[in-house]
Amino acid sequence: MATLDEITMLVRELTPAQRDQVRAFIATLRADASAPPSGWRFDFLEHFAQAAASSSREPGGMEIKVGEAICAGVPRPALWEHPPVRGAASVGYLVPIPTGVRQVALKFAIGLRDGSELPRERMVAFRVIVNGWKLWSAVKNSRAWEEHTIQMPQLGSNVARIEFVTDGLGDNRWNWAVWAEPRLEGEARE
């Protein structure tokens, strides 16, 4: 077993990206300690500080943050992801999946915040990308929350890259896109 000094020395030699992976893994271990014995959970809002925000083109007009969002009068904690003027916005996470966790599902709701004046004929695209592959997508132009549960594929590694993407489809005005309470839930093998 390594001493604390040995571990500290090894961590100092890691790249910033590797340190972010270690932070995410430690956060998952902490979350596992508070999870019920039969389940595992990863809350994306709690781990927002470790997320990487980007745009597919220039980031002008993009707004990404965590806060309360109100859709059809119903407030919920959410990831705000207004797409840039051109292209799509992406918020990516490196999620360590503990050994023995199975039947992992991604749960979230999508909506457009109250006050948006998005015309009926325009849509906002929402996508979930897992390890570079589009797992799910939908278009939306209503303000009400829309619940989703997506079964995750069997992952080939113990760290998954999960991205939440929004796209104004050529016009970002009034695209007040939000993802409510995004989380992964799975069963822990006994």
One letter per element, helices H and strands E, the order comes to HHEEEEEEEEEEE
- DSSP strand (E) fraction? over 45%
Per the principal axes of the C-alpha atoms, what is the gross shape?
Answer: globular
The residue ranges in which pLDDT falls below 50 over 5 or more consecutive positions are: 32-37
Largest sheet: 6 strands, antiparallel
- N-C termini distance: 26 Å
Task: Give a topology summary.
Layout: H1 4-12, H2 16-34, E1 39-43, E2 52-55, E3 63-71, E4 74-82, E5 88-96, E6 101-112, E7 124-130, E8 133-140, E9 146-151, E10 159-167, E11 177-188
Antiparallel strand pairs: 1-11, 2-5, 3-4, 4-11, 5-10, 6-9, 6-11, 7-8, 7-10
Description:
- By secondary structure, the chain is mainly beta.
- The chain has helices spanning about 5-10, 15-35, and strands at about 40-45, 50-55, 65-70, 75-80, 90-95, 100-110, 125-130, 135-140, 145-150, 160-165, 175-190.
- The strands form 2 sheets. Strands 1, 3, 4, 6, 9 and 11 form a 6-stranded antiparallel beta sheet that branches.
- Strand 7 and strand 8 form a beta hairpin.
- It is globular and about 60 Å long.
